[in-house]
Amino acid sequence: MDMTLDHLREKLLSWKGCELHKSAKPVLGEGNPAAEVMFIGEAPGQKEDELGRPFVGPAGQLLDELLHSIGLQRKDVYISNVVKYRPPGNRDPTPEEKEQCMPWLKMEIAIVRPRVICPLGRHALGHFFPTLSMTTVHGKPMTLTDAVTIFPIYHPAAALHNPSLRTALAEDFRRLRQFLDGTLAAVAIAKPLAP
User: Fold this and answer.
1) Contact at 8 Å (CB) between 63 and 156?
2) Are strands 142-143 and 37-41 parallel, antiparallel or unpaired?
3) pLDDT (0 to 100) of residue 2
4) DSSP string covering 125-178, please?
5) Beta-strand (E) ranges in the chain?
6) What are phi and psi of 102, to 5 degrees?
7) Given 108, 158, 159, 170, which residue has the most CB atoms within 10 angstroms?
């Protein structure tokens, strides 16, 4: 039987492979199971932990606005995180926590099979291109494989903490729309990590 997102969600509920499970609820991604575009954040925050859904707090509200600005809605895309549990106090996830949770993200990608993956922030970008800096590659499509393009975007939470990033974030989404419309070409980047 093929794995589905519902099966994955069920399995994650009983998974104990990351210490964060002791202090937080598991939060799998959600959205269109056949989405062309997948957004990947860092880890759930307080609101996400409470509701068991990704990007439902302030950063999620901003993400919804940005999606709307380019003619998309949550139901059109798939939204997930690298780490599936909220780190205590919303601290950054550790490399170990990211590594422990990575198989879940890889399974989500394999099930959804997006054409474009948008890492939101450096933690998500680091999985695909560990040596690249978000400040230099945000808003620039990069070829991962023949079938998948990575389109890095600043994390919406960064713009909430640093309002000067709002313009760059809006521009990243405008460029994403151009790319989806076929008017912005991707560039090949050497030696990415496998998805």
Assistant:
1) yes
2) unpaired
3) 75
4) HHHH-TT--HHHHTT--EESSSS-EE--B--HHHHHH-GGGHHHHHHHHHHHHH
5) 30-31, 37-41, 78-81, 116-119, 142-143, 149-150, 187-188
6) -55, -40
7) 108
Residue 55 DSSP one-character state: S
Going by C-alpha positions, the residue among 117, 124, 113, 32 that lies closest to residue 78 is 32
Domain residue limits, the chain: 5-188
Q: Which two tokens stand for residue 85?
A: 């549990």
Q: Please tell us whether the domain made up of 5-188 is placed in CATH 3.40.470.10.
A: yes
- 178 to each of 70, 111, 117, 182, how far by Cα in Å? 9, 26, 15, 6
The segments of the chain whose pLDDT lies below 70 read 1, 188-195
Listed residue (5, 176, 38) closest to 107, CA to CA: 5
Q: pTM of the predicted model, to two decimals?
A: 0.94
